């Protein structure tokens, strides 16, 4: 699988770019947010990619971070959400926004994406509410390193399909707290929920803490 592409942007269209990698052009479809983040034609860029394989077509989809890529893959696991619908949701909400919408059960925010109806939006929230903490636990992955103009660093790489959540660093509780505050929860209520979850599940990893804390923070009644 092509997991990452780095090279010179030959041209930009409304929803895709053509990236030249040592003389070979790769057409990469992107969300509106990703398109806005990319440089102009003639400059170098790097994108994490996901390859869609069908009987009649091969399509590459590009993302600025691994977190965004994994949200794309997770969204596409929902019935009725194809690659274009996933990009529409990510373009409207962004990785943090979709995590917040799912955590809060806010399917109306998902419905705001172009081409997403209420039934599909509700399926996204309902089907991903237990899976989302795994992606949220990954945190904000750094963008791919820029490519030197010489072209010597132009690359096509195969990378793991689903990177494991970060386990190093300040610890599961701090990472879970960071994820919850990124979702818009107040530091005080998020901290209390994480502390209670950690007390209930002493050996919990980051994803387990996020999942348990979200249940504690969910509206009652």
Automatic annotation (TrEMBL):
Gene3D superfamilies: 5' to 3' exonuclease, C-terminal subdomain, DNA helicase RuvA subunit, C-terminal domain, Nucleic acid-binding proteins
Location(s), subcellular: Cytoplasm
Region (Domain I): 1-64
Segments of this protein annotated with the region Domain III: 170-221
Gene Ontology CC, one term: Holliday junction resolvase complex
UniProt free text on domains: Has three domains with a flexible linker between the domains II and III and assumes an 'L' shape. Domain III is highly mobile and contacts RuvB.
The protein's name: Holliday junction branch migration complex subunit RuvA
Species the sequence originates in: Roseovarius nanhaiticus
Taxonomic lineage of the native organism: Bacteria, Pseudomonadati, Pseudomonadota, Alphaproteobacteria, Rhodobacterales
Protein's gene: ruvA
């Amino acid at each position: 699988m092509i997991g990452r592409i780095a090279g010179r942007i030959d041209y930009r269209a409304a929803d895709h770019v053509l990236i030249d990698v040592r003389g070979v052009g790769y057409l990469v479809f992107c969300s509106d947010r990703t398109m806005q983040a990319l440089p102009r034609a003639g400059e170098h860029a790097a994108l994490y990619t996901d390859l869609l394989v069908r009987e009649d077509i091969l399509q590459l989809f590009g993302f600025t971070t691994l977190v965004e890529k994994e949200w794309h893959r997770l969204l596409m696991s929902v019935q009725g959400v194809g690659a274009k619908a996933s990009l529409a949701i990510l373009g409207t909400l962004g990785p943090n926004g979709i995590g917040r919408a799912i955590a809060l059960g806010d399917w109306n925010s998902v419905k705001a994406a172009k081409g997403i109806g209420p039934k599909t939006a509700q399926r996204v929230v309902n089907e991903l509410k237990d899976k989302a903490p795994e992606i949220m636990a990954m945190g904000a992955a750094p963008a791919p390193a820029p490519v030197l103009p010489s072209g010597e660093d132009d690359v096509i790489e195969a990378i793991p399909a689903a990177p494991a959540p970060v386990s190093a660093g300040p610890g599961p509780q701090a990472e879970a707290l960071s994820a919850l505050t990124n979702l818009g929860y107040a530091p005080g209520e998020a901290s209390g929920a994480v502390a209670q979850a950690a007390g209930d599940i002493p050996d919990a990893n980051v994803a387990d803490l996020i999942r348990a804390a979200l249940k504690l923070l969910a509206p009652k009644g």
